[in-house]
User: Fold this.
Amino acid sequence: MGADGGVLAEATSPKGMGGLARDEFEPALAELIADWDLRESTLVMACGMVGSRQGWVEAAYRQVPCTPVSDNVTRAAATDPRLDVRVLPGLSQLSPAPDVMRGEETQIAGFQAMNPDFDGVLCLPGSHTKWVQVSAGEVVSFQTAMTGEIFAALGAHTVLRHSMADDWDAATFLEAVSDGMSRPEALAARAFGLRAEGLLTPDSARSARSRLSGLLVGAELAAARPYWLGMPVALIGAPKLTAHYAEALRAQGVSPILTQGDAATLAGLRAARKKLEPSL
Amino acid sequence: MGADGGVLAEATSPKGMGGLARDEFEPALAELIADWDLRESTLVMACGMVGSRQGWVEAAYRQVPCTPVSDNVTRAAATDPRLDVRVLPGLSQLSPAPDVMRGEETQIAGFQAMNPDFDGVLCLPGSHTKWVQVSAGEVVSFQTAMTGEIFAALGAHTVLRHSMADDWDAATFLEAVSDGMSRPEALAARAFGLRAEGLLTPDSARSARSRLSGLLVGAELAAARPYWLGMPVALIGAPKLTAHYAEALRAQGVSPILTQGDAATLAGLRAARKKLEPSL
Assistant:
């Protein structure tokens, strides 16, 4: 980023916390930006699992209620003097229920920078979907549902792996959302039903993915009702995924705002840099 | 087994449908019983996934309502003339919801042989727990919940793998059963709560396994309420697992009978043999 926050160059890598030991983070970054022309002490703003206990450096959680980012960042050791690495801490909550986030706080800060007057609820769908109540620039409380990770585990590591074609059917999804909201206790039976149907009427496999996804999202919406009911809601994330959540919410009479997750992350990192270097 | 149904010898192997190609079943059996003294055309009664599409031979489902076993068995090809292999078909159901079972029908037949006058509900807990309504010797309807497989997938293939100590706490389990019954929609949030708690208060990992199991069993009990409410209930399966289900059911005022799964399987194979050779 330039001094004005504009993007000068970008690069991405699939290498992350899951596959890197502590001393492999700097080499992974160095490899990724080898052809960039860096000046001495270039500020490197990092967020997400890079700050977890297994990350480059552990950046201790900040406890809500608080602003999503602050000037409290953790310096990560780097051998290259051109890298001045700062890792943003995640957020934690003890009550009403223990919860944590890492990375989403940066997207929340980015959303707030783009929508400074927004008071309401943010939903960040993903492996660990976050429902976040924000007010007056602070994160008040949040609730995580590991809907995406449950979907992935059931689709890949149970008998359902035989039943999950790639097709997506929007009507089936919405029907399943409604079913999952009203009968969430039936998930384990409905899930096996997809397998049984696949055996008895092989063509049904084409709708299994939309059905399983809808059942899980429906249960999540039922559990998160106190978050979205009667509230302004914004969805932040990958376009396809937020579109599915938006459809499900619209069926409940909610009209969410949609924001791209990447843009929110970038705006959040920019906001965090401003906290460190207010002159920028 | 002798002519009277008594056990003459037994052997077990971990090799099953998941790891064997069609032409590897006979060698696996031959290896297992190599030192048995078999006569020509020894009847080999087989049930379970050995009769699935990927098994030794496909034994087509019989549709409920019907008796759990019949003289309808499928012969599997064997090169050894001493082996006369018969595979029991599973059961299928089209309504009220598509469902299938393989192997459990044999345990049901075994239970009925031991308890000929039982009318009520059988619960066979496992990877795919079966709730089965039996009446006048027939399986009337059934419902599968893939509770066990969901538990295994979440414990091994999600972030919860970091939080699952081996400890078991009966009080925590029962508390979670009650929570899962009354708030099944919160599963994805409660599950992530176990992870968050593990990060924020590391000692809590010791109860995570009992908690996750209870949440899933609780949701299953809520979904299966029409099966067990006000009905005589018998549990068939591995002693530890049936004991957990029994505790959960007792908290709901149900006093189930407990039957060992292995004994039921053996009695069921014996009952199936009687259908083939009524003179025995």
Notes: The two ends of chain B are 12 Å apart (CA to CA). Chain B touches chain A through 47 residues (CB under 8 Å). The domain at 145-259 of chain B is CATH 3.30.420.310 (Nucleotidyltransferase; domain 5). Residues 205-223 of chain B form the longest helix (19 residues).
